Amino acid sequence: MKVLVTGAAGFLGRRLIRALLARGELTGPAGKPVAIERIDAFDVVPLEGMNDSRVRPVTGDIADPAQIEKLIDADTLAVFHLAAIVSGQAEQEFELGMRINFDATRMLFERIRALGTQARFVMTSSVAVFGGAMPATVPDTQVWSPQSSYGTQKALSDLMLADYSRRGYIDGRSLRMPTVVVRPGKPNRAASSFASGIIREPINGVDAVCPVAPDTILWLMSPDRAIDNLLHGFELPKEKLTQGRVINMPGLSVSVQDMLASLRRIAGDEVARRVKMERDPAIERIVNSWPGNFSADYARSLGFVFDADFDSVVHAFIRDNAAPAA
Amino acid sequence: MKVLVTGAAGFLGRRLIRALLARGELTGPAGKPVAIERIDAFDVVPLEGMNDSRVRPVTGDIADPAQIEKLIDADTLAVFHLAAIVSGQAEQEFELGMRINFDATRMLFERIRALGTQARFVMTSSVAVFGGAMPATVPDTQVWSPQSSYGTQKALSDLMLADYSRRGYIDGRSLRMPTVVVRPGKPNRAASSFASGIIREPINGVDAVCPVAPDTILWLMSPDRAIDNLLHGFELPKEKLTQGRVINMPGLSVSVQDMLASLRRIAGDEVARRVKMERDPAIERIVNSWPGNFSADYARSLGFVFDADFDSVVHAFIRDNAAPAA
């Protein structure tokens, strides 16, 4: 099987590729495991340090039709589409966000439709599609009401994935992910970037700013569970997807103050004191429009997984952070 | 004020233009009535029989950027976008539906954004954005889950209108219309075409086929109320749109058998017997995916109107049908 991963140089992309290589096989439409012969690892920046003969790194512009034609051919029967412009940047650079977060996704669907392969296609959506007045626990039946261009673009892509799947052009699954915490590396322009920063930076001896109120409730998933769910989302037989192709993932509902209490409990007072509370209205406006808890009944019934508590999320970061970069 | 109406040669477009001409003015962003000096009446087919110096008929391709540039200029501060490929045809001709129902709408928004006019923009959406398991009365918070490409394309356009409005590029209002009944003229390729046909054809002495079960519940609005609501949707101050720009319209929830009972009551047994019951699974699948009743609380609070009962809808058709074509 030939697999395409977009956003391959991102932190989830790298982890996904490592997980695919470690498994060596994937169960697709045939219903039994098939060996992964090749992974086309696409990103706008080069993927480095992934030394495996099955991985072919490719760089380019994901919204260029000629690039897409080269990326996906009749043998590409599995796609994990993770490439995206993050929420803060998509809000500031509207045209770029539309082009990468929506137009490129549509072009990928169109390419598969033109080939007639009905490739299985997993992508990540976001809780940023929700907004406005909502119950404390958001049901699967909650209307989409994005309060950001990022959320809008994810919802547009979700609608297209669902219709292309309904028509039999692709076999799509869009996983509406919680904020993935703790991300390694540097802060990015996602409005949710602080949610990793307030754990990662202090543990690495660096001060961090928390731009939202302590009682802000976040909906989180660890990187480990995110990868588990991407693979599970791929391998689910399509017959099981009785309530649609766009699936609110389960997650962990936790307040910022409880996150900081975990940090203090695990890493100590001195580390926890590196977090400064400085509210930023622009970030608060976006983050507070995202719900802090979801029923995710459909996802639970399909066997998607979630983290038991935030302490285990911090422990997992400390474990990964101490390991040599891969 | 210069007004653009797309889909101007369609039956709602013609009625809307006549209503605009009769009023002679519209209340826009300035908050007070402004005289309508010109109506650009755009359609793919020529608009005929509209003899008023204020009306300028234009024909062309709504998805052609050069055409859109000509249609909308810095003086175009009011747009009623009614042009669409109907549901049945959009299901059969996927690319055409995407191009007209979504890409063209996006281009109109982009044109206004490029001009920087923040033009007020009213368009019609559809209950076809809903589908799957739903409560008998659908709340405003119901998730979108289109079961047709038409519904998908309307939902895509709704999301774009909301984001362009939020960003201040346009001042958009999308009215999610019930099925408009009774349409004059000939059957079209909308899956809902029969809902007018089973009243119109018998009254005009022609046999009609009803392709759905008698207990099918439809969500309806008369042409008079549709025009009232388009104008009301335009004139609402944007400050009142506190729950978003995409508004489920109120309507009349009625079963097919009750519609036929109205026909019999008003037009007599002989007329009612011209309706033959012949179920068509392709039409039933689409129509049954549409809800038959909505709370429409937000629209009601904003003053949108609806029909009191189906008898008055039939009477209005008989009145219009007897009048000389305008």
Automatic annotation (TrEMBL), chains A, B:
It comes from the Bacteria. Gene3D superfamilies: NAD(P)-binding Rossmann-like Domain, UDP-galactose 4-epimerase, domain 1. The keyword NADP applies. Residues 3-200 form the NAD-dependent epimerase/dehydratase domain. The keyword Oxidoreductase applies. Pfam families: Epimerase. Its EC number is 1.1.1.410. InterPro entries: DenD, Epimerase_deHydtase, NAD(P)-bd_dom_sf. Keywords: Carbohydrate metabolism, NADP, Oxidoreductase. GO terms for molecular function: oxidoreductase activity. PANTHER family: ADP-L-GLYCERO-D-MANNO-HEPTOSE-6-EPIMERASE, NUCLEOSIDE-DIPHOSPHATE-SUGAR EPIMERASE. This is D-erythronate dehydrogenase. It comes from Paraburkholderia solisilvae. The gene is denD.
